[in-house]
Description:
Blueprint: H1 2-26, H2 30-47, H3 53-59, H4 64-79, H5 82-90, H6 96-113, H7 124-134, H8 136-153, H9 156-187, H10 193-222, H11 241-246, H12 249-279, H13 284-312, H14 314-332, H15 338-366, H16 372-400, H17 403-435
Helix pairs in contact: 1-13, 2-9, 2-10, 4-7, 4-8, 4-12, 4-16, 5-8, 5-16, 6-7, 6-8, 6-10, 8-16, 9-10, 9-13, 9-15, 12-15, 12-16, 12-17, 13-14, 13-15, 14-15, 14-17, 16-17
Amino acid sequence: MRFINGIKRSVKGTGQGLLLTYRQLKRGDRNIMTFITVGLLFDVYMNLHRPFAVKFLNRLGGGEFHVTLLNSLPGLIALFVLIPGSLFINRYQRKKGVIGVFIAISRIFVLLLACVPFLPPGIRPLMFVILLSTMNFPDSISQTGYQGFLGDIFDGFNRSRAITLRNKFGQIVAPLIAIITGLIITLVPRGSEAQMNSQAITIYQIFFVAAFGVAIFEILVFRRFKERDDIEATKKVSLRAIPATLKDKRFVSYMVPTIFFYFMFHSGFPLFGILQVIELQATELHLAINVAYSGLCGFIGAGVWSKLLQKKGNDYVCFVSALGLAFGMILSAFAPNMYVFIAVQTVSGFSGVGIVITLLNGLLAATPEKNRVIYISVYNTFINISLGLSPFFAYAILNATSIRPAMVIIGSLRVVAAFALLVIYLRSRKNLNLGGSAPKPPPL
Length: 444
């Protein structure tokens, strides 16, 4: 009964969110509406090609090492460009234009992915990994700039509301696109196994081109953001500004536990891909259903987390949702087939949206307005170190054991990482008790 009542409250909260969005549109709150629309177009763009990247790599002839490299190389590439890119963006008072340029460069790479099947078969897997990883060069710069940009155009209350609404609606759009693409790839190919594989690859190429078309609309809508006039450019910022970020106790005390969590979180990426595609022999339809079901659970979870966020605060929700992701991975390790695996994603899908909301909101709250892009670039640099190294950490455990024990080990380490995030909550609660009660945020 409690579960049913929770679903009813979530659906009711979503309806209130839609009404709130309509009222904001009526009174001209353009930035929130633009943020939501850009986010939804980004979800369509991503779900036209990313959910099936491992399966596409497998169809091209890729193996376990290619899957590991696909999860590691993007972080290693971003590692060398984040700080120089953020220093470049931070020079501009009007950051929207330069961020838009990097977004456009990133989206061009998806057209190059469509050309990979035209290459000789022996180099296709590696070239796909290289191109998808190199895409992270402009993408990481644009995302870091975008995160700082959000801190500039939204205050704390509106930022939390915008992020929550964007992710709530994204839980509807992303699964829908994934299901449609998965059904097309699964049902359209006909003939022998080789013919079906060739036809599926052609369909992937069509999706890559379609993703680029959606990206054009994403960039056009992004240009509708209205920037504040009172934000000053920091034109003389150099590499000397970076040590100052590491002396900021508030920032460092937030960054250290979250980077540890990210390391364990990233370690699970290649293992999930190997378990689904190689061990359980998942088809694109299985992967699409998994994305859709996880999205449905996230849609329900968004309403629940937003209520809990108002009562307990951002840091508490971050800890609880991280704990859910940890147990979700442990349960996934025991799935005998894809249907049980998908059912287990109830826990991961429900928890994942809580992590997305709270980590970004917590980061923006932990960084000062001055030089925020520099702070975020330092933070994202450490995240990309994690992204670059953690898949090989998981690969070493995989080679020492096997896929299912490796997932249990990483899942257990995720539990430890969740309790590292609990430290942030306990510290913030102690500070609130010392300094009085914080103002309660408005309903999301």
